Amino acid sequence: MMKNRYRYLRLFWILLLYALIILYTLVFPTTASWFIFYAFTLWLLLSFLSTRQTYHLTRTDKLKKEDNTFSFIFFIENKRRQPFLLSSIEIILVFNDIQRSSSTAVFFARKIESQFHSITLPRGHHDTLTLTIVGTGWFGVWKKRSQLIVPINIDIYPAVLRKIERERLMYHLASFLTETSRSLHHDYYMTDIRDFQNRDALSGIDWKTSLKRGQWMVKEYEAEEETPVDLYVLGLDTESFETLLSIAYSLLMELKKTKDVRLFLLGDFDGQATVVMDESGFLTIQPAQNKTTLLHLWEKTRNTPSKKIIIKSSQVTVPVLAHPSQSAKIIDEETIPVIKGGESDSEQDNG
Question: Which of 89, 120, 144, 153 could be 51's S-S partner, Cβ–Cβ 3.0 to 4.6 Å?
Fold first, then answer.
């Protein structure tokens, strides 16, 4: 605001001075007065014409960093392929609430390279951002403002946890992920009794049957297929929503390396509460406002035999799963300190 006021005040004094020069030349038409008039007119005209240039973007370089921020480098040239006659150019990157600017002297330059670092874009898909270009003419008298729409085509997923945090998360889930839904020591799962072979472990000998038959015997059991893992995200509108979403996305990346994972994202998508089972849903999921709606969606999707990891706010209570093949592990706000390196509230109370 102060900048614009100063610029308009300066322009007012320059135009007032020009009016006085015209008046002086008309009243005292000498060779010197006419020279001053023509020189000042030429100066104002060239200063104005120097701002009448158009720009185009020749290249955009973007780099994503580990902390989920971006660096952009924009290369801008004069549309007529002529050198810039401006004294300086200010380039302002505008995106939602983000606004960064950089200024550089460009007189007789053929190309502008403008860099912006550590830009944090919100989660979602982004097609374009805007560059506002403010060109300042000679001596700072005139300015011209124009805009360039820059295609970027970037998908911003939730931030991935640091390596040490992912290790803590997987350690926290290790016992749950490795336990079986039934015990193979029950005769119900036995398929055969056979003679002991050299490849068999001594721990597998059925001593009771061996004593009856007078030789070592072992039981064979039905092999249990690995239970799939269902990853649920119950998105409620709380302060921890984005943090829990980050944990869910990081966990999905880890589980996919070794297991068959089915994803269930429960929340608002385009203003409607629904369930999305695709990874791209992480881009657009928004927290639901109503707990009852979330629980209704949960009831519609939970009746599958699987190990369930449920990531939710502690404000949402899900019904207990009765069937042993539907065992569940809850991750909520109390788990966050464990992952981040502290202790949960329950652990501190036990201490």
Answer: 144
Enter the tokens of residue 187.
């005769």
CA angle (167 as vertex; 163, 168 as ends), nearest 5: 120
pLDDT band at 221 (very low <50, low <70, confident <90, very high): low
CB atoms within 10 A of CB 16: 10
Q: How confident is the model at residue 345 (pLDDT cuts 50, 70, 90)?
A: very low
pTM for this model (two decimals) = 0.70
Position 300, amino acid? K
How far, in Å, CA of 302 to CA of 264, rounded?
Answer: 10
Task: Quote the pLDDT of residue 182.
Answer: 47
